[in-house]
């Protein structure tokens, strides 16, 4: 009896699992890669618009139908990077037991207040001095005395040391090192670190329809954009050709959400629709860009307050999505498939997440082909799934009832015997 009950429970679990299986609604093919290795697969606006907000329900399959592990990566709107830019070392005169000299060239006569030296690791302490010149004949002191020490890098065979001095723009800098007590240093490079900003990469979201309405009564220009499917816009760029000078406030309406009053009993609370919007300011002194919080929409409305001025001459409005990628190891010549669009699917747990730093940032890019619907998307808790689940519950109840009745009868027989 116990064995029969176990089989019954296993069968019900299998039915339940079948009801809860992966249910993808869309797929997109990936053209074969030309080389083996890691690639970036661009998640287009068309794909992301049909994913869960956290992109949990996307999967990558190879030709054999096996799941391919991947990482998710996203562009950063603005990131700041430091780049080492070298100066030319005209000569390095080494004088063991005396005063060694490094001559650095600053041809553009940039105004600088530091020089970074890339030095081979050495457990030593060196006294240095710095002077500047425009003709290599007349030298002027910049720093009478400084020290280079603790030149040890545990990760690399060289260490960068920064030498500060008063702001100056000499064509030549002369660094003198006291090598009277030890051998000269192995100075590999001299230069400076330049910090620069780099904008993230965006993809333009196709707009299905665009309309404009200028209201004479409210002095507001309404721009409505519809996309024909859900999308996640990150930025809007408005291209304005006139007038020459303008300053117009406004807002971008992303949609509405239902909110409930806090007071009163839960069953009696009243709800209302609240507008979701971000402020907009169009000025001739700045680029007409607006960044959004992450919000799923099917249309946008820009409202521009004109005051008593005539409406702006708007050439175009571009809606942009910050690029997001799947990073995966692909074999050359193989076709891969992205499947997505399952509102119940949880995020995958791949070992690859523990090795993100081991995968290069610069990788070949592949763009999926046009998405295709696998089937008509069913609402959560569709009739077929509900019937299957209720059938499993009914079967389990009948089985347990039967086993209970049989167990009671066996107990009665034992008593009578």
UniProtKB/TrEMBL annotation:
Bilayer-spanning residue ranges: 387-405
Gene3D superfamilies with a match to the protein in the record: Galactose-binding domain-like
Top-level lineage group: Bacteria
Signal peptide: 1-21
Keyword Transmembrane helix: yes
InterPro entries: Galactose-bd-like_sf
Keyword annotations of the record: Membrane, Signal, Transmembrane, Transmembrane helix
The protein's name: DUF3999 domain-containing protein
Native species: Rufibacter radiotolerans
